[in-house]
């Protein structure tokens, strides 16, 4: 089969599901009179979907702030500069919950309108479906107690609804490690409540820190290990609440310098603020206040948030067996909004996602703008997860086609062009440059001098890794741990590559793990490079923080990757090292120096994702089968398309016959 045929076959299949026609919106008029009103509608509709617990809110929407014009459009009455804060509120003292809004008449009508604004081709909910109800604690029946009280592993396989075998009531080891016990206590102390329900965990709970900055907020990326830890414990409420409330915060409003971030962007973090209730001295109300980067240091864009959100949503469904969350209309809409934002056409020529510097865990200037590996691995993982979770619907066929197209192209691009080992380095070292042709070997015009002597010396005979970034005439040869780990977990790296990455970690143990796992990247930028690339950032000095610092939270991603490759002993070794210091050092955010000997210069103590990362690593090692909620195996159709591309030789001549390829590789 020709490459393009193979690819098109995969693409036209448009994913594993077929889609039925859109019942509600396909024929609706999508035109709106004013952009301003559009914003109002968007926020109103998203708000209504989630915050029906408050009659205050209904008053705001139904009576005080929004009025309906004669032809049904909403407009703001009174205060035209309503802030987000005023909208995302919950009157906490009110226990009673307001029932769901129907789509017939009254406020229900404007919900249909706002869905039109979003042009998401979603179906309108039936009453009550959108309510944020109490979650039942779902106990998994996958773990079967044998007569001696141990877990019967054979029975631990996926249940019919896909639930991974964990649960609060499931039997666990009788003796609890004191460090684990302490970690659980600290993790529970970090829980943030909204209207009485747990919705996330604070980034750090450091009583010794003089300046809190935004560490008192719930960060989306930081909550992922917390969420996984709670899932593994069978405590599903907090994760469900987190998923639904952050969804509600998804971008639809002007945020910075009169500029709106792309619709679908998830915030970097949010905070629960408490205010006295207007006109009632004895009562307060709570408000969710998101930060899309408009207040963040450096105004960095949280590109990874939405990707992590999809990953956690999938894990929630797999672990709890509760698929009702991912099937909700508003959740399906949220997934599609994230996808549309990521898959939107731009000027870029590559299938990788183009982002600005600091748009992920490394949220500072570190020279990772362009196509950083971490974002690509999360992107790939989110695309796979979304494809799995999207429910059949005709209106999404184009989106699914684009998604499949991207999956094939992205995996090919990363596996082929990001991969380096000794052999590949030697190839680059001998590259010819300035090749103008379709079949250039050195496609990105990489100058061989970029292969430094220290890199050649560092590369082990056995092993390899995916480089940090690829741009025209630029390969960022730094090893970034999270990107490499998540490429293994998501299957973005091939099996051979995945094993080779773990080989490299073993071979370079004293650099990457040393006295505290895991180095965020290696090597550090030093001297002039540090000056130019970081702008002489005093927080990111060599071997500190993002610039070669060591982050205990990365333990959990390492553990999932090792379990997937059936090499858990590597993770176990790393955990053993971490255990010697983490509790004693008060769970720091990061460590400094080449061998991670110091607690980081400005590291917070009691950093929640250090605590949760450790717990997840421990829990998964104790029950490796639970890692399935995070791992994605290779899709046979993708493998097929990919191998056809490889076997047809990426360096082939681009003759007339294949000039109709859907994308350039
Ligand atoms: C730092 C980290 C970022 C993290 C945040 C909160 O900014 O770089 O990844 O999300 O702290 O812990």
Automatic annotation (TrEMBL):
It comes from the Eukaryota. It catalyses: Hydrolysis of terminal non-reducing beta-D-fructofuranoside residues in beta-D-fructofuranosides. One of its GO terms (molecular function) is sucrose alpha-glucosidase activity. GO terms for biological process: sucrose catabolic process. Residues 136-151 have a biased composition (Polar residues). InterPro entries: 6-hairpin_glycosidase_sf (IPR008928), 6hp_glycosidase-like_sf (IPR012341), Glyco_hydro_100 (IPR024746). It is an enzyme of class 3 (hydrolase). Its EC number is 3.2.1.26. Coiled coil: none annotated. Keywords: Carbohydrate metabolism, Glycosidase, Hydrolase. Residues 136-175 are annotated as: Disordered. GO terms for cellular component: chloroplast. The keyword rRNA-binding does not apply. Belongs to the glycosyl hydrolase 100 family. Invertase that cleaves sucrose into glucose and fructose. This is Alkaline/neutral invertase. The lineage of its organism: Eukaryota, Viridiplantae, Streptophyta, Embryophyta, Tracheophyta.
